[in-house]
Each structure stands twice: as structure tokens, then as C-alpha cells.
């Protein structure tokens, strides 16, 4: 089975050979495959571990003899990892076939052709003025675009026109730095938000996040980490018009600063690649 490991480095997947292994065995697998020494690891099913200054207070996975199945950890579960020091994130593993020969059919089956999506699923995004201003004002006036901020957009969809209307933005508990955004999602709170939106005739229509001013020194539009996070949340929805909105601060011709909203969509192929585990983390 596969479980997801969330750390300050992002989301990684770990293959577990036996669902009834102990926490001690899980830590050994993390050391082997994710290059984090056992003595440096603190594990928990509580996402606040990632922003805590005292990770030792998280004891739900401190007993090395506890079976992970007894904690409700199963295929697809998320485990949070905090560790001291630095590490080298492992690259994709190369698996050699036990067979000496590979047929052309075998080779074709292992290939994925990357092609450009010619037509967008969403042609236009329209924001409620107060919703957009409320989001950017906090990031601009309070955070000064020094760290990243994100949220989920709710509104309506005009399927015939291919248009998304954003009426409000829900900002979940989170921890942002100059280069990363960790969403500390609360399932029960999100259910309440979904219920309120449903009562208003709305639904979740996309993901919005900011780039810090420190990122302005780079040449990319979206970093690999931002693409992975955007496609991860998009893959949770069955809405083909789902949109991702980037908010950033740019210097104008007069030397002042303007806030820009830019809308994107992760392509259908991008979502397919993520769901089929073709990505290899950050």
C-alpha cells in the first residue's frame, strides 16, 4: 500500500509492504527511501506538527512497537514528518526489469506522451470585488507579500459559457514561508464551509495562492512545488472548470507596486499524471 508523507519539503509517497508494520519499521522505511535518519524523525497524524516549535510534544506515534494500522493508517493515509537538519531529496528510482527482453508493446505501455491541451475547460474567471480585495489586502497590508498565503475559492459555474464566478474565498489554517505554503486543513471545518456554500447555491471552484516578493527574483511563472500543490488540490475535485489563481506584487512603469491576479488551469493530462503517481515529489 502507499501512504503519503507530508514534511516541510512537500508531499512524498512511501510504499509500505505490509499494512501491519510497526512505527519502528515505518521509520526505517522513511530512513531508507526518504533519507531522513531515524533519530531525527518525529511522526504524527496531527498536521500541526509541521509548524510546532516543540515537535516532541506530539506523542501519538512515539511508541516504536505500535502498529500503524491501530492508528487508522491505511492506503492513502497522510502522515506528517518533522525532522532536524537537512537532507537530500531522493530522485526517481530506476527499476530494472527481471526479463532480458522487452517487446515493443511493453515499451509503448510504459510511455506517456506529453501533449499540449489545445482548448481550455474554463474561458473566463470573474471575481466578486470584495472577495478579491479582502484576500489581497491582508496579504499586502499585513503580510507585505513576505510569505505565501492561500485559500479555496467558492462560487458558481456557467458551463455553457465556460465561466467561473468567484464569490468568496475560504482561507484554511496554514503556515506560509517565502517559498512554501502548508495548508493545515481541518476536515470538519471544510464540511461547514461546503454546507454554507451549498446553501447559497455555490460550490468550490478553485485554489488561490500568492507568491512572495522574494520569489520575484526568479524566472519562472509557477515553481514545481506550486504546480504540484495546485494539481493536488485540483485532483480532489470533479469540476472540469476548476481554476488556479496566482496573486503577486509587480513593479509598474512609475516605480510603484501593483497587485496582479493571474488565472491558470492545470491541464487534464497534468491531473492524470498526478493521479497515476507519475510525479516524483519536489
From TrEMBL:
Instruction: Tell me which stretches of the chain form a coiled coil.
Output: none
Q: What does this protein do?
A: May be part of a complex that binds ubiquitinated proteins and that is necessary for the export of misfolded proteins from the ER to the cytoplasm, where they are degraded by the proteasome.
Q: Which family is it part of?
A: Belongs to the NPL4 family.
**Keyword rRNA-binding annotated:** no
Q: Which UniProt keywords apply?
A: Phosphoprotein, Ubl conjugation pathway
PROSITE patterns given for it?
MPN
Annotated GO biological processes are: ubiquitin-dependent protein catabolic process
Where the record annotates domain MPN, the positions are 124-266
Describe which pathway this protein belongs to, using the record's wording: Protein degradation; proteasomal ubiquitin-dependent pathway
Locate the transmembrane regions by residue number. Answer: none
> In its UniProt entry, what is this protein called?
Nuclear pore localization protein NPL4
Q: Entry's PANTHER family?
A: NUCLEAR PROTEIN LOCALIZATION 4, NUCLEAR PROTEIN LOCALIZATION PROTEIN 4 HOMOLOG
> A Pfam family matched by this chain, by name?
UN_NPL4
One GO molecular-function entry: ubiquitin protein ligase binding
GO terms for cellular component: nucleus
- Specify the domain of life of the species encoding this protein: Eukaryota
